[in-house]
Amino acid sequence: MAAGNAHIGKPAPDFQATAVVEGAFKEVKLSDYRGKYVVLFFYPLDFTFVCPTEIIAFSEHAEDFRKLGCEVLGVSVDSQFTHLAWINTPRKEGGLGPLNIPLLADVSRNLSHDYGVLKKDEGIAYSLSRWLEARQ
């Protein structure tokens, strides 16, 4: 796993990425969540068989997280177009269906690298969650 720039007790690396939010593309930055906690979870690829369970569980509990002042963001190295296709695919056909959380596109792999989750030999992110406090 790459060392990255995210370290306990240090400011989290800022980022900007295109996300799928409620079925539309939107630019998302860590600074958008200032004053909140953020669960930033990474997963390897869209349309895989293990990841949907975790993503759907996070989505189903998004409101519980929000009540605690926490937002949940999912990230993979797929494009926003692939994210949208996976969301638009019904769950019974291997898709995610509608989500209550954003999925961020990390095509450049910079976000995965900065957070130390990039599996360089395969160009994908490890499955990992980072809990952040977006201060100030």
UniProtKB/TrEMBL annotation:
Catalytic site positions: 51 (cysteine sulfenic acid (-soh) intermediate)
Annotated GO biological process: cell redox homeostasis; hydrogen peroxide catabolic process; leukocyte activation; removal of superoxide radicals
Coiled-coil regions listed: none
Matches recorded under Pfam families: AhpC-TSA
InterPro entries according to UniProt: AhpC/TSA, Peroxiredoxin, Peroxiredoxin_AhpC-typ, Thioredoxin-like_sf, Thioredoxin_domain
Domain Thioredoxin: 6-136
Entry's localization field: Cytoplasm
Keywords assigned: Acetylation, Antioxidant, Cytoplasm, Disulfide bond, Oxidoreductase, Peroxidase, Phosphoprotein, Redox-active center
Catalyzed chemical reaction(s): a hydroperoxide + [thioredoxin]-dithiol = an alcohol + [thioredoxin]-disulfide + H2O
One Gene Ontology CC term in the entry: cytosol
GO MF annotations, alphabetized: thioredoxin peroxidase activity
EC number: 1.11.1.24
The keyword Hydrolase belongs to this UniProt entry's keyword annotation: no
Predominant location: cytoplasm
Binding partners and assembly: Homodimer; disulfide-linked, upon oxidation. 5 homodimers assemble to form a ring-like decamer. Interacts with TIPIN.
Primary role: Thiol-specific peroxidase that catalyzes the reduction of hydrogen peroxide and organic hydroperoxides to water and alcohols, respectively. Plays a role in cell protection against oxidative stress by detoxifying peroxides and as sensor of hydrogen peroxide-mediated signaling events. Might participate in the signaling cascades of growth factors and tumor necrosis factor-alpha by regulating the intracellular concentrations of H(2)O(2).
Family: Belongs to the peroxiredoxin family. AhpC/Prx1 subfamily.
Protein name, entry field: Peroxiredoxin-2
Organism: Rhinolophus ferrumequinum
Gene: PRDX2
